[in-house]
Q: What sequence folds into this?
């Protein structure tokens, strides 16, 4: 499984991010979280696309501690998220970022380095832009001074009090999905043949979108989609379960239509038990709902085929690693 590391100084908001995105904790409740004092690992396996491990590191981790095997940790890492508290003096954080990135890059040059400039809800719009520009400039200058200009850092302005943290995590996760170009291509074909303006493929549990079409993502559009998923799940939990409380609030029958007051329709359909397609459609285009549903049926079938190919690849890799283990010689020199 790809590994995502959450790193940064103490009290920068790492554990809060994890709890809000993957455990549905209310942002206000994160104020009572204790500081992390050991590495916390968690499996995220909501679907065969969203499938990774998150390692939450304590802020006081010491790379020079001989008991800290950073080579083993960085070798299996897909993305390293470094969280910087934008409301604090970030000079120490930038120094730690530089140390972390240079160490990680030497062990594994393929790591994606993602910088979350966090807690921006307390800053004005001008201050946000200025802070991002300053951190971007200083971090890249430090790398240039060390002769490491080829290391690419991605920067995101984030807060747990709005949807920015979900969008940033979506971008991080998308880079770890090898099938992303295929998914984007399928969505492009689907919207162009259905008269749809924008479509997202969402992981329902975390509200991370694992793919969207090639048109630009508007934050307001994304927030509406997230709110729609919440509404559908909440109503299904009240009215969709059986009398004895059994059943699931999200299944293959899940579907929702919400008409907005600006002649736009939000349309949600179940793709798999963990994935949903959320579309933005103009009212006049939604009159051809039969065409949209037929194209959706073709889209869902194509997604299932992508799933099957991925599962075959995973099984093949497991089989190969098992065969290699069995071929290892035993201590007396004969194969197992």
A:
């Amino acid at each position: 499984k790809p590994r995502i590391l959450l790193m940064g100084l103490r009290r920068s908001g790492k554990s809060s991010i994890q709890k809000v995105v993957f455990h549905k904790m209310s942002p206000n409740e994160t104020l009572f979280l204790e500081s992390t004092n050991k590495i916390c690992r968690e499996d995220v396996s909501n679907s065969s696309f969203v499938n990774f491990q998150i390692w939450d590191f304590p802020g006081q981790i010491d790379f020079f501690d001989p008991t800290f095997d950073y080579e083993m940790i960085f070798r299996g890492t897909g993305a390293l998220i470094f969280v910087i508290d934008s409301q604090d003096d970030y000079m120490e954080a930038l120094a730690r970022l530089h140390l972390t990135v240079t160490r990680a890059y030497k062990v594994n040059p393929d790591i994606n380095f993602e910088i979350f400039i966090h807690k921006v809800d307390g800053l004005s719009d001008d201050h946000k832009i200025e802070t991002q520009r300053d951190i971007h400039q200083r971090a890249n200058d430090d790398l240039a001074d060390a002769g490491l200009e080829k290391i690419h850092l991605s920067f995101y302005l984030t807060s747990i009090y709005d949807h920015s943290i979900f969008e940033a995590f979506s971008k991080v996760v998308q880079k770890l999905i090898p099938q992303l170009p295929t998914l984007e291509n399928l969505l492009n074909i689907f919207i162009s043949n259905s008269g749809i303006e924008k479509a997202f493929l969402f992981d329902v549990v975390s509200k991370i979108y694992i793919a969207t079409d090639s048109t630009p993502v508007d934050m307001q559009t994304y927030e509406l989609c997230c709110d729609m998923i919440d509404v559908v799940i909440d109503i299904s939990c009240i009215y969709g379960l059986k009398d004895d409380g059994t059943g699931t609030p999200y299944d293959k029958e899940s579907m929702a239509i919400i008409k907005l007051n600006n002649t736009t329709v939000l349309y949600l359909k179940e793709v798999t038990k963990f994935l949903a397609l959320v579309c933005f459609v103009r009212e006049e285009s939604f009159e051809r709902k039969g065409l949209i549903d037929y194209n959706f049926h073709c889209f869902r079938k194509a997604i299932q085929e992508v799933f099957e190919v991925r599962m075959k690849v995973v099984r093949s890799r497991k089989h190969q690693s098992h065969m290699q283990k069995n071929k290892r010689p035993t201590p007396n020199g004969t194969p197992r």
Remarks:
- The radius of gyration is 22 Å.
- The chain has a mean pLDDT of 87.
